[in-house]
Amino acid sequence: MLKVLTAIGNEYINNQLDLLNRYEIVCEDIQYQEALLEIINKKEFDILILYEKINGDIGKEKFFDMLLNIDKSFEIVLLVESDSEKNKKYYKLKGISRFIKIDDITIDSICSKIEEKNESKTIEIKYKNNMNENINIPKYIGIYGTAGSGKTIISIAFGIALNEIMNKKVLIMDMDILTASVDTFCDINNNGECSLNKSIESIKKNDFTKDNLLKSLYKINKNLYVFSGNTNYYKCQNILCEDYYNKIIEKIDQLFDYIIFDMNTNLFIDATKWCLIHSNIIYCIIEGNYNSIKNIDNSLFVINNVWDIDREKFKIIQNKYSKFSVEKEYIYELLNINCVGRIQYNNSIENAINKGEVIKLIDRVYKNDILNILGYKTNKKKFIGGNIIDNKSIFKG
Fold first, then answer.
1. d(CA 334, CA 318)
2. What Å distances lie between residue 171 and 24, 116, 140, 156, 259, CA to CA?
3. What pLDDT digit, counting tens, does each position of 373-385 carry?
4. Which of 329, 339, 342 is nearest to 368 (CA)?
5. 77: which strand partners?
6. Over the stretch 213-266, which tens digit does the pLDDT of each residue have?
7. How far apart are CA 240 and CA 242, in angstroms?
8. What CATH number is given to the structural domain containing 180?
9. Max CA-CA distance within the chain?
10. 3-state class of 75 per DSSP?
11. Residue 177 and residue 56 share a domain
12. Most buried in the list 21, 186, 234, 360, measured by CB within 10 Å?
């Protein structure tokens, strides 16, 4: 028998459900946000029937964050004022999939939702299968995403993984203008002279050769190189431009088999648009929360509709994944882009950055996740058809 808790400000519905002898009603109806949060920590139940505008002083956004961060397994049936797509999208981003519009409430409709199978487990998503006996990896790989999502770490991880499995020359090109940090993460001391600015100086002197380009790069190992990026505001504003980027990539294209663009989130920086246009495939790095998905959705609107960059080029990677993260099925439903992998949060990263040991951590931890995303079988996780197989439910409501 399912255990049901109600928090709808309506004792009549609570009593009617109890009279059915179909469920175990764990207590009287809860009237306030604060009381509900307290009761949840004390009672065991399977289903919470919740009115979206339950009384309280916490505030809607904070209340739902607190509710969904409680470490308990339960499903939520949400009673809503509006069943508009916008309202449902808001709650689906939080992992809630069962709704009843206030105007449509009956005891039968509530029972139906209580007994409904969890949508997050039954949504059918047809992921594209990019895995072949011979893995086909595009030459230009773009790494884009929301601020702080871990783009640079993942860019380096792609470089290390590609270098290992393909045994070909790979370049990590730091085009994260103003906040370039690949050199820092790779423990490279460039003495303030980045590859980008060195290359531009050579172009100005009509002396930009393959040899000069190679001299400006930083070698990580036999076939893995870093093209370090600019952090100078003056040069960003007054010197850097697409004409220089085009001349640089023309030489790079002749020297390397794979190029990975680590780019800035900011769409007002010309290098971001340039990288997106030149990428054959773009991995969007997001965190597993509503704000990160909302921000990437806003950026993609400009990228796809204003700049006319094909949405088919994009794949989602969910970084810093935890049990509270949004399900990848919902990411697909909301962004219409495949989530091809999830990378768990690693609390050693800050220490690794401070000690100059990021490369070691990536090689030990992140590399296998990227190999899985690329379609290369590892022993770390069960892997089929270019997607990590993971049916674990993240939100229980």
1. 14
2. 61, 50, 10, 10, 5
3. 887 755 443 332 3
4. 342
5. 49, 98
6. 999 999 988 899 999 998 787 888 888 999 999 999 999 999 999 999 999 999
7. 7
8. 3.40.50.300
9. 87
10. strand
11. no
12. 186
